[in-house]
Design a protein that fits this description.
Two copies of one chain form a homodimer.
Chain A lengths: L5 H20 L2 H17 L1 H12 L3 H24 L6 E3 L12 E7 L3 E4 L13 H9 L3 E4 L5 H17 L7 E4 L2 H9 L5 E5 L2 H13 L6 E4 L6 E3 L1 H20 L11 E5 L3 H6 L8 E2 L3 H16 L4 E5 L7 E2 L2 E6 L7 H4 L7 E7 L5 H5 L5 E7 L7 H10 E6 L37 E7 L20 E3 L2 E3 L3 H5 L1
Parallel strand pairs in A: 1-18, 3-4, 3-6, 4-5, 6-7, 8-9, 8-15, 9-14, 13-14, 15-16
Antiparallel strand pairs in A: 1-2, 2-17, 10-12, 11-13, 18-19
Helix pairs in contact in A: 2-4, 2-5, 2-6, 3-4, 3-6, 4-5
Chain lengths: 488, 488
């Protein structure tokens, strides 16, 4: 296994520092062109890249091709987001010279934080890796990026880096805008490196917490935007179960087995009525083939997790089976009565990464809000209900415990749009921001205000004439430029 | 000294939890009425409150009356900010049913975090205390607040709490929306209390860091928005010094002696040309009277700080003198050649709270950017220059090291407007947000997204018809409702 040396780390960080100085001065249009160049390079190298990825991750070619498209789409989306300009949060308050004390002219915008460390994830070798969402958000913001490669796909990480490096070079992006380090030691050192101004992380609670603690222990603590773990509770009401229980069973089985259950939004705990159609039918859709998970560590974690469930009093294996073939796992569905949650909630409500889910049978749907009170933060909360059922108290509980509330659908599948939120209360994430979608850019920005600045000292975004045609707040009033005058 | 007991702390936190549930469901209009009720109560009790404050803080009545007006103005400003509605960051992306995979309907808004702990400051017994900016931002966001009283003004903290408590009760705000705890132990426990979801802090680097470390050590770390210390460098160019050095000397003297130098934006280090008019004239404006600082600890810190300067090689006392009267201090101005910065920057570039400033004499204005590279983050950076001087490299250095860049003015005086930013890189603040002005509300909010939600499960802010007439982003396009239709 390759481990980046301390000298190499220093070199990459120094290059990232220089690149970040260029990136922050670059125009939004230039940064958008960098994002599109990375997107184009991924798309045109898709065949080579997915073959490397498939060999390293055991994910299928089709899934991986889809993920490349998602990743390049994400880069292009963020290019259009920064071109729109709202992300700068431009605001101008003109001086008020006739009041005492005089109120000065104040002009505010967001500027990039500086070099960002990105820890890539095992389960998305493209979308949450070298050229993934954190990297795209950071470049969109005007930051450079040092990526810590995931040990589950080192070859792919290197190859992706060199593909995007060449693409960036061709469009005149600064050298060192995106670079790669490898190894646990290098990752730990990266979080402490003086030039690094923020961290983006997607991974496990244990690994994330350790890096979070390091980032906070710095002489100058830096923001740590981490996605750490989520059980993504699903509630199926009696009405939904009786109206379409068989169909829900199939949907659930698809969702928890998607990518062998290795999604951060996998439905991990499903609250169903006693004697539900969902429980009756789910087994028919549970795959019996052996599957290889992303890494040996993830396989071991899966076995540990389902073993803990099995040992917990009252838990029944209702579909699938444990395989004892080394390195392989099989889909498994468990069920338990809701009353058991109170006695062993730590084990039962822990995230188990991989193709499994736990049905929790409730006696009365009116008990569901009380049951949910014991749940920690999740990325998502899902409700399947019929139109005549009042689920407002369940929605309300989820508002306090989840980042996205899904109605009559499944949490897997995270659309990349302006309104997406991929985040949630601890331990889902450490932060008040999304890691997917337009607003993720805000993680890597900070405000600055110019007071009574001569126009020559202002960036053009804050010039009185608004030469770039950007949305701005003027004296408290939001104003959107006419699109025609803008494009002229 | 009163110390809140552990049981009392639990009671206040439980009440804050209940109040926060009511506050998050309250309409924006209701929350605005709470803010205005607090403002009106402060204004109508101004005489009583400033007399209590003057006795406890040694700040003058006129200054304190001004601060009450600032504080009530701040509350009313935030009421109008939330009524405008942009702070909700509403965004709706309609479903795209014809693409594969289908893109669901996604609706995003910001919601309150929950109960917030606010640590009030010694130097602003109103504006950064019980009813100050952090409290106002948190209530505006829909959070409840538990304030840790500053030991420098306990009576005022209690009286302010009871004044606003009555006012809040009269307008139907929930009991426990704002409550008070006292004592260092209670403050430390407050940061660890399970119901607390965020911390706002204004104070010293040492005290702030200790509380920051506690907040980060929680099983579920919570955001800590702290303002910890700032030296607020000022650069005076040769052109400015020769054109208006005498006037600048007077302005500097006013700024660093304002409130006996006890402002977080006090100009602590001033880069001047050798043999400057500023240095020649500043002494004439330095007060010789004894002054009493806010607390004994602050007096002791002042003496320590100026003593460390005096002991540093090459530092000269050029105006004022040390007084040996116990509990009193006098204004003092020091000067040192820029070359000395490299040998003793820790002592010379430390914040000294109180009526003093350090002139740093540079040989060549072209050296100034290099000198500034050694400066840590500050709330402000100030440039005094003539129109024909190119200061762009100085501006650029400040962009990386300050939150507000002031041209031809002084950093003291922080206007409360939409465009204000009061924050800066560590150690000025821990965060990417302001603690003064409209956007400070964002600290106490987090996003949530509803996916394919029936309208009955959505808050009215996200209904298709936009019944509240709020600014929203629809399918990526920002749209501002017609003001006339809105008021109808």
């Amino acid at each position: 296994m390759t481990e980046t040396t301390s000298d190499e780390l220093d070199e990459r960080c120094a290059a990232a520092q220089s690149a970040s100085e260029v990136a922050r001065r670059a125009t939004t249009r230039e940064r958008a062109s960098w994002l599109r160049a990375i997107a184009a390079a991924l798309d045109s190298n898709v065949d080579e890249l997915v073959h490397i990825a498939a060999a390293e991750t055991h994910l299928g070619l089709e899934r991986l091709e889809g993920e490349v498209a998602r990743t390049s789409g994400q880069l292009r989306h963020l290019a259009s987001v920064i071109e729109e300009g709202s992300f700068l949060e431009l605001s101008i308050d003109h001086a008020r010279d006739t009041v005492a004390p005089r109120v000065p002219d104040l002009r505010r915008m967001l500027i990039p934080l500086g070099p960002v460390a990105v820890f890539s994830a095992s389960n998305f070798p493209f979308a949450f890796s070298v050229a993934g969402g954190d990297t795209a958000s950071a470049i969109a913001a005007g930051c450079s990026v040092v990526v810590k490669a995931h040990s589950g796909h080192p070859q792919l990480s290197r190859r992706t880096t060199s593909v995007i490096d060449r693409a960036l070079d061709e469009v005149g992006a600064p050298i060192g805008l995106v670079s790669l380090v490898e190894g646990t030691g290098a990752g730990a050192a990266l979080v402490m490196h003086p030039v690094i101004r923020a961290v983006g992380f997607t991974g496990s609670l244990a690994g994330g917490r350790a890096l979070f603690d390091r980032a906070m222990s710095r002489p100058d603590p830096i923001p740590f935007f981490g996605e750490l773990g989520s059980i993504n509770p699903v509630v199926i009401t009696p009405g939904a179960d009786s109206a379409r229980g068989a169909q829900l069973a199939e949907g659930l089985a698809q969702s928890f087995q998607l990518g062998a259950g290795q999604f951060c939004t996998k439905p991990g705990v499903v609250l169903v009525p006693r004697d539900s159609n969902v429980e009756r039918h789910v087994g028919a859709h549970v795959r019996s083939a052996n599957e290889t998970l992303l890494t040996d560590r993830i396989s071991a974690g899966f076995v540990e997790g389902v073993t803990a469930w099995q040992r917990s009093t009252g838990v029944e294996l209702i579909a699938g089976e444990m395989t004892h073939e080394p390195g392989s796992v099989r889909s498994m569905v468990f069920a338990v009565d809701a009353e058991r949650l109170t006695t062993d909630s730590d084990a039962l409500l822990a995230e188990v990464f991989g193709p499994t889910t736990l049905l929790v049978r409730y006696r009365d749907v009116n008990d569901v809000p009380r049951l949910l009170e014991d749940f920690e933060g999740s990325l998502t909360g899902t409700i399947h209900a019929e139109p005549d059922e009042d689920v407002s108290s369940i929605t309300d509980l989820f508002v306090g415990r989840a980042g996205r509330i899904v109605f009559n659908g499944w949490p897997t599948g995270v659309a990349v749009t302006w309104s997406q939120h991929h985040g949630g209360p601890w331990p889902a994430t450490t932060s008040q921001f999304t890691s997917v979608g337009a607003t993720g850019i805000r993680r890597f920005l900070r405000p600055i205000t110019f007071q009574d600045a001569p126009e020559a000292q202002l960036p053009p975004e804050l010039w009185e004439s608004n030469p770039l045609g950007l949305p701005r707040r003027i004296d408290g009033e939001l104003s959107i430029p006419d699109r025609r005058s803008r494009s002229s």
